[in-house]
Recover the amino acids of this structure.
């Protein structure tokens, strides 16, 4: 028990997890009085699976009309969101939707989350990059088809801003779905690449939120309704269980996608990781990964995975107990002088086994890119400030130098990572 926790927990009002749970949605929405919805998905689900047609028919039988938008794309941009807003509003004409449903991975869920605001306000999504203010979103239901992002329980929607080649985050607790419906059967069609990239993202959410800043020291900026606010006894309970489930099921789900036990295990792992990081927040893994993504345009899961072992190595003193806990969960002998090194090496191996390069050189990053990578990572201040070390500037230098070489050195070549002239001002 942490007696000095400042616990602030915000989750979906309804969380449903079971094989075949998708069949429960139409009757549930009808019982709650909803009559007119938008289902946001992509062409794969609309054309290659029966799920969309099945749902629309079932909803109709329950007296709910549904317009399907199937223009979702991986890593949606603000441009796509604005086009989707215009397109859907033109199709609906006089009809006012009373809910938005997402079917898909993190990309479709984030697009749909943003649309809950723009369809009602009719404003461009960039208007909301500093908050949604008084523009109340439409009620939102999320049905994930990957086990990874847990956007179905989080307050954020991430969109690419093509004008600045950066990502913008819409962040508000009102953007959390009021129903998170997790049907593991949706994930059975996930190809191995998507399974691995999403699955390692789930494991990282569990691990990173387990070692993040404590709630009692978290800088909330006087926000009475914070999206993320540091780790607590509760978030750590979810984190531990999500890490255990990932350690047990991730490799198998990747190697054999027909193993339904592994798929179901990863569905739970992803949600539990989301219930941890969705309140505790994240730090340096995601902070540095955003910059790696800016340079390489690799997927969210891969850019996180490549940097994870090196970030954890940097925490070997300030989070020694937690890293021992994680080692124990992963089946490594704990409290030994070599435990933490073994853990980070084991994670490095796991990343490689999932077909993801486990150092920055192999990821296509050149030595000349390192100063830029460092400065961009430092500029993500929200995540940097939650990294529990005395000096984040030095820590980020060591992490990037080690990750470039693929080593765990106490004295990496810091000369590789000098400041570029950028200032650390953006979010
Ligand atoms: N809002 C949040 O809290 C949050 C957190 C983490 C990541 N994200 C965002 O999520 C996105 C990544 O999401 P993702 O990893 O779930 O992948 P994704 O949604 O980008 O999907 C990747 C590809 O896999 C396909 N796919 C998804 N599920 C499938 C299935 N069951 N069968 C067959 N194909 C399937 C999709 O059609 C797509 O082509 C990134 O844009 C990232 O920024 C958001």
């Amino acid at each position: 028990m942490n007696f000095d926790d400042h616990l602030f927990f915000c989750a979906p009002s309804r969380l449903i997890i079971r094989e075949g749970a998708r069949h429960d949605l139409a009757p549930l929405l009808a019982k709650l009085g909803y009559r007119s919805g938008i289902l946001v998905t992509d062409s794969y689900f609309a054309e290659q699976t029966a799920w969309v047609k099945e749902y629309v028919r079932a909803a109709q039988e329950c007296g709910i009309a549904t317009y399907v938008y199937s223009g979702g794309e991986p890593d949606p941009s603000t441009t796509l969101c604005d086009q989707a807003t215009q397109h859907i509003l033109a199709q609906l004409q006089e009809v006012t939707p009373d809910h938005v449903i997402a079917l898909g991975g993190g990309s479709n869920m984030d697009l749909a989350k943003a649309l809950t605001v723009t369809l009602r306000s009719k404003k461009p999504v960039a208007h909301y990059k500093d908050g949604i203010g008084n523009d109340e979103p439409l009620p939102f239901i999320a049905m994930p088809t990957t086990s990874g992002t847990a956007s179905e329980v989080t307050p954020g929607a991430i969109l690419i801003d093509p004008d600045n080649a950066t990502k913008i985050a819409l962040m508000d607790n009102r953007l959390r779905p009021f129903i998170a419906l997790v049907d593991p059967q949706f994930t059975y069609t996930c190809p191995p690449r998507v399974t691995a990239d999403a699955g390692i993202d789930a494991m990282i959410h569990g691990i990173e939120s387990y070692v993040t800043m404590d709630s009692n020291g978290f800088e909330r900026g006087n926000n009475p309704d914070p999206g993320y606010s540091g780790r607590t006894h509760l978030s750590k309970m979810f984190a531990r269980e999500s890490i255990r489930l990932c350690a047990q099921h991730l490799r198998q789900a990747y190697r054999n996608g027909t193993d339904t036990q592994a798929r179901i295990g990863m569905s739970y792992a992803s949600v539990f990781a989301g219930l941890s990081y969705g309140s505790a927040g994240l730090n340096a893994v995601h902070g540095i990964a955003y910059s790696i993504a800016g340079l390489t345009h690799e997927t969210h899961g891969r850019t996180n995975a490549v940097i994870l072992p090196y970030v954890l190595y940097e925490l070997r003193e300030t989070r020694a107990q937690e890293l021992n806990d994680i080692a124990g969960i992963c089946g490594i002998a704990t409290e030994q002088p070599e435990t933490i090194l073994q853990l980070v090496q084991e994670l490095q191996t796991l990343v490689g086994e999932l077909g993801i390069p486990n150092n920055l050189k192999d990821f296509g990053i050149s030595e000349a890119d390192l100063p830029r990578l460092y400065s961009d990572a430092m500029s993500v201040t929200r995540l940097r400030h939650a990294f529990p070390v005395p000096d984040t500037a030095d820590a980020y230098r060591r992490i990037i130098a080690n990750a470039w070489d693929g080593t765990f050195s106490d004295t990496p070549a810091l000369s590789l990572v000098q400041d570029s002239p950028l200032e650390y001002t953006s979010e």
Remarks:
- The chain is about 45% helix and 10% strand.
